Amino acid sequence: MSGKHPTWYAFIRWLVKTAYFKTHGGIRSVGAENMPSQGGVIVAPLHISHLDPPAVACGTRRRLRFMAKEELFHHKLFGALITSLGSFPVRRGETDTESIRRAIALLEEGEAVLIFPEGTRGDGETIQELNRGVAMLAKRTNVPVVPVGIIGTNVVMPRGKTKRGRHLVTLAYGRPFTYAQLAVGKSERENRDIFAAELQKRIVDLCAENGLKLRIANSGLD
Question: pTM to 2 decimals?
Answer without folding.
Answer: 0.91
